[in-house]
Amino acid sequence: MVKKLLEVKNLKLYFGSPSNPIKAVDGISFDIFEGETLGLVGESGCGKSTTGRSIIRLYDITDGEILFKGKNIHAGKSRKELIELNREMQMIFQDPYASLNPRMTAGEIISEGFNIHGLYKDKLQRREKVAELLEAVGLNREHAYRYPHEFSGGQRQRIGIARALSLDPSFIIADEPISALDVSIQAQVVNLLKRLQKERKLTYLFIAHDLSMVKYISDRIAVMYQGKIVEIGMAEDIYHNPIHPYTKSLLSAVPLPDPMTERKRQRIPYEYEETDEHAKLQEVLPNHFVYGSNSQLKKWII
Amino acid sequence: MMRKKLLEVKNLKINFKTYAGLVQAVRGVNFELFEGETLAIVGESGSGKSVTSNAIMKLIPQPPGIYEDGEIFFEGRDLIPLSEKEMSLIRGNDIAMIFQDPMTALNPTMRVGRQITEVILKHNKIPHSEAKARAIQLLQLVGIPMPEKRFRQYPHEFSGGMRQRVVIAIALAADPKLLIADEPTTALDVTIQAQILELMKDIQKKRNTAIIFITHDLGVVANVADRVAVMYAGQIIEYGTVNDIFYDPRHPYTWGLLGSMPDLKNDVKEELRTIPGSPPDLIHPPIGDAFAARNEFAMAIDYVKEPPMFQVSDTHYAKTWLLHPNAPKIPVPESISRRIEGYLKEAKGNG
């Protein structure tokens, strides 16, 4: 039996005034199992990044529960417990230019977590650990003394990954980690993330809008639309047998490097359908959940 | 039917003066474009694709830019010696450009309507009311609902996709013969991207506009292009019809680009092929083949002599020594050939 690492239960995050809230995340529930990659896809503004940021406690949530290894992460916690939680859960950000402090060397960026957590106090030991991390992400030890502007976009993203790995976390949230990179560099970073997952038994939440890379890297995929998860299931099932009309529409828009298919491509437009209050995420096939009311699901499954 | 040749770029070389030295951003680019045709220029950042397209619009600032050599014939007339005044008659009127980021391409302090009529009035001597009517027509053409109301709104009242439609409407305002689109959909969501691509193809059909489409997304290329030019280190290294490039790629760099995209259809879970290393420094371009250092199939000659463009077929050319009759026969890497076979089989199966 695979263990649940993270459980999200009826998560809500509203911005703005309570009388007229913007429902960025509107009651979503999902689990992430140990060692898997869950891909979270959707268009800009659908709430996917907000979900990631709520899990790592960058936002205070409006309602719901997030359990990490069975413990509620938003409940009142002592400083010690928070520090332990932060060590276990790390984030890789989208923009490798904005997420690294330009006044710090790569080595300082990677070892900043050591100061906070009081690790590797011995200078030599620390230098070794930084070198090991740099080598793990395909850079070399001399790079520790360089500043971010001396690196290319792909190399910067590797530094961001090394920083996320520095405290030996078990769970990494990657928020659009490759969308700012060139195609051939994207492939390098994705291969690296997959290799590190195998070597270090990591669990990923991979947030992206690029469906082809998400399908490639993920075991399961969750599709978000307007603050709700509309479909979640195994990557292959979502791709080959999408049920929710929004998922179908999204998949029909992904261009493939195959001109003959592209010439015949028919985009399926999505028309928003009101759901009634009975709408919920329902298991329609084994491990394949779709959001909707009973009558909608009946209509979509045929 | 003989189609009219609209644009011919010959041996274009563009340099930039920097403190570090002279950057040779475009190193001898040749291509031609016919009416009603779409040419996609693909390549990674720094390959010179945007510099090439900006050069056609004469948008390279001088200094630091230098038009080192070459000619750009638009309808038979070389654009390079033209003065800024002569060029301003061509820009917008004959050649128009769509930029990547619709937010920075629009003026945030000006109503959208006026940004369109401004272009119309600059190129036509017509009354204001007529220009307004045409602007509203254009907004309708690019699929913006309630154009009369939208005409009076500011860019911040539009979503990203709608803004890009406005940018396209402005580009079309003077009915250009050539449209240069520099990564027009990169900042947009996939569903919006699909709509914008459909829109551009639709407009092309109606107006017989030629399009140069610059992108790094091979899926988008497969969707829009008639012909494709792959750029690397300031040069076109492979050139052909969209079918040539996707079903019969010959240059190892093109293999690398195709291999670095995950194959959605054939459910392969193997590692993605990557291109090792990074592009060369164009202040000191390498001797020989610029791609040699990253090429697993590089031969001794690649480090000595630059390869010429070898002809593969009437439409297909590639700049690699692997195509020399004396070179060893290197087959397309298996992961890519398997994928292509899959695509071709499916195409056959569908009739």
Automatic annotation (TrEMBL), chain A:
A Gene Ontology molecular function term of the record: ATP binding
Q: Which InterPro entries match?
A: AAA+_ATPase, ABC_transp_ATP-bind, ABC_transporter-like_ATP-bd, ABC_transporter-like_CS, Oligopep_ABC_C, P-loop_NTPase
Q: Which residues form the ABC transporter domain?
A: 6-251
Q: Which SUPFAM superfamilies match?
A: P-loop containing nucleoside triphosphate hydrolases (SSF52540)
Q: Which domain of life is it from?
A: Bacteria
A Gene Ontology biological process noted in the UniProt record is: peptide transport
Pfam hit, one: ABC_tran
* Record keywords, A-Z: ATP-binding, Nucleotide-binding, Transport
Q: What is the similarity comment for this entry?
A: Belongs to the ABC transporter superfamily.
Q: What is this protein called?
A: ATP-binding cassette domain-containing protein
Query: Organism source for this protein?
Result: Lysinibacillus telephonicus
